[in-house]
Amino acid sequence: MKYLIIVTSLLVAVSAEELFIPSADGSTSTNIPVKLNQESMHFMIAGDFGGWPPPFYTTPTQWTVAEAMGQAAEKLKPNFVLAMGDNFYFLGVQDTEDERFNKTFESVYTSPYLQVPWYPTMGNHDWHGNAHAQLDYSHVSKRWTYPWYYYTLDYTLTLSSTTMRIVMMDTTIQCGIDSKGVPINATVAEEQWAWVEQQLKDGQDFDYLVVVGHFPVLAAGNTGPTNECLFNRLQPLLNEYGVSAYIAGHEHNLQHLQDNTENSNVEYFVVGCSNFVTPRFPNADAPQFSSKFSWAEMTDLGGCYGRVEVTSTSMQMVFVQGRDGEDIYSYDVPPRPKQ
What we know:
The chain is an alpha/beta fold. The chain has helices spanning about 1-15, 60-75, 100-105, 130-135, 170-175, 185-200, 230-240; strands spanning about 30-35, 40-45, 80-85, 120, 150-155, 160-170, 210, 245-250, 255-260, 265-270, 290-295, 305-310, 315-320, 325-335. It contains 7 helices and 14 strands.
């Protein structure tokens, strides 16, 4: 009980003041271009994988999912992993020497086939600690690749001339630690909004254009049916620029939702149960979207992860349960029409 009181007090204290966040400048790298001599590629999605505070560091669900990811990675040879935020429950990390990096991340995802770039975004729990330390850890780890709070990944598959841009957002900067819409730093939030729109505008020639953020825009679970902060400002941009998909975490389950807004072709995916599972969908029948799939089973503490195969003809999103590594849902997102 004493620990819970301390945690609650810290969360309130952090949420009550605007945090200092440096603005991007000319020396800030916010783009990672990668060319692969391949016809297709795979990547994985670990959602809200952040373990448990000391002295435990991990959860049985995290171990189960990590093992399933490693087994699948041996076959698929993924090129990278997306980390969807809430990377370290419940209070983030303190500095680059924090043992959480080792005990909740490095020593859990040990498969040699997961020693590929991990591209994180920040979740609300990460902002309760030293968020910038997660960026700095990129200089310590060979695979943790986090150049700035927001950044783009531009992948080109040279053998099939297939291209993908992934826009990595920090939705906590935009919408606040409580996700209600008050940014934790208003100046940097506006800078990020302008940056996001510019990335989408400049990304019109990509075959697949994907946006990633911790908070969902649409959600069938407890935080839905919409995150007003993102729904009012990001959702129109996703529609205007023909984004292929928006991928989120935060809700500890799997979801595939389709926006009911007229002329919207954006697919909305939630992958947030690589450490916890929350089997509640109170907004499953919300009028703002059509729910194509939802899953949150706690059998054997199995959890879930996502994997994606990108080819010239589709971007296939696959949901996988950690308990037995079985695929439980898949959906093919077609390439964007050529401009």
